[in-house]
């Protein structure tokens, strides 16, 4: 497909009305920043022709299991007797069971996020006990053992959904302490999360592109005093982390953004280092302005006023 054909295809696919109906706005600046000199290696090849719009399915709940790693086995949640597998199995068994979620689907991912409370070098312990970030609720389930996953999530998730539906601002975490004394619940205070697929065992392109994107994002966030390093939990910052395979490696780099205050979720693809400043300025600082040609999915969740 030539350049002219690409232009005709993209011009004919006007998603403006759908963008507005989903509660988003079109970005008012270019997706490219000419001042950025960083580039991906020329040897990497990507699909720059296929339509990205709605190329991934919506979901109502996303579990992010902390591992402290940047790469994982080919099936990152498939190894039995691990926390991530227990969470993924629960998600698969309970998809469609909860009223009040925007979609019946439940997604499970592993990430480079790590816990200050675990022995980071103790791989065996981390496979059994760990932390789970629950999005779009921006709440942490900490120190949960894989044997507790079924009972705890089946108890906690319905109450969390009900809490949000009632527009409450304070969930009584003490009510869970008697039955699950080792588990700790915490509200996350970052304004946004940015996830980049770095799953090299699934596709080498992600293992190469994700670190380059992360470096560029963090440079810009530092300039804005929004960057949060490991162990820095200062509120209202932006946390950047690696994540396992999310689909569409041929569309690298995939960038997944969660905005806490508005409940918005943005999946971007075909992202390059020279797109980083516009992404931060438009998607994060301007509350979810997007470029339809680079969007795989946009969702607006009923957010919680923690």
Q: Could you name the CATH class of the largest domain?
A: Alpha Beta
**Main sheet: strands, sense, barrel:** 5 strands, mixed
The number of distinct helices, counting runs of at least 4 residues, comes to 8
Encode the helix/strand succession as letters. HHEEHEHEEHHEEHEEEHEE
Tally of individual domains: 2
**Shape estimate:** globular
Report strand %: 15-25%
Give the end-to-end Cα distance, rounded to a whole number of Å: 49 Å
List the strand order in the largest sheet.
3-2-4-5-6
The CATH topology of the largest domain is what?
Answer: Glutaredoxin
Report the radius of gyration as a whole number of Å.
19 Å
The CATH homologous superfamily of the largest domain is named Glutaredoxin
Low-pLDDT residue intervals, each spanning 5 or more residues: 1-12, 117-121
What's the CATH architecture name of the largest domain? 3-Layer(aba) Sandwich
Summed over residues and divided by their number, the pLDDT gives a mean of 89
Q: Tell me which oligomeric state these chains represent.
A: single chain
Total E-strand runs: 12
Class computed from helices, strands and strand pairing? alpha/beta
Give the proportion of residues in helices: 25-40%
């Amino acid at each position: 497909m030539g350049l002219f054909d690409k232009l005709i295809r993209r011009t004919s696919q006007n998603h403006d009305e759908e963008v507005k109906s989903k509660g988003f706005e079109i970005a008012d600046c270019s997706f490219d920043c000419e001042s950025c000199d960083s580039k991906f290696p020329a040897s990497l090849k990507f699909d720059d022709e296929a339509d990205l719009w709605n190329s991934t399915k919506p979901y109502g709940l996303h579990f992010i299991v902390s591992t402290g790693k940047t790469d994982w086995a080919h099936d990152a949640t498939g190894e039995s007797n691990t926390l991530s597998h227990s969470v993924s199995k629960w998600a698969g068994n309970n998809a469609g069971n909860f009223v009040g979620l925007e979609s019946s689907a439940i997604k499970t991912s592993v990430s480079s996020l790590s816990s200050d409370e675990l022995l980071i070098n103790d791989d065996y312990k981390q496979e059994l006990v760990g932390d789970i970030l629950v999005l779009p609720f921006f709440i942490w389930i900490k120190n949960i053992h894989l044997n507790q996953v079924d009972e705890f999530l089946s108890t906690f998730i319905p109450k969390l959904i009900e809490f949000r539906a009632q527009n409450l601002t304070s969930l009584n975490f003490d009510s869970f302490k008697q039955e699950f004394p080792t588990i700790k619940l915490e509200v996350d205070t970052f304004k946004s999360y940015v996830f980049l697929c770095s799953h090299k065992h699934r596709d080498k392109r992600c293992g190469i592109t994700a670190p380059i994107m992360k470096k560029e994002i963090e440079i810009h966030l530092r300039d804005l005093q929004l960057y949060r390093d490991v162990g820095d939990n200062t509120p209202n910052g932006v946390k950047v982390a690696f994540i396992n395979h999310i689909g569409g490696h041929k569309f690298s780099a995939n960038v997944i953004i969660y905005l806490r205050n508005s409940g918005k979720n943005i999946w971007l693809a075909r992202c390059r280092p020279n797109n980083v400043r516009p992404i931060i300025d438009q998607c994060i600082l301007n509350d979810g302005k997007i470029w339809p040609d680079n969007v795989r999915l946009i969702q607006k969740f009923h957010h919680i006023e923690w």
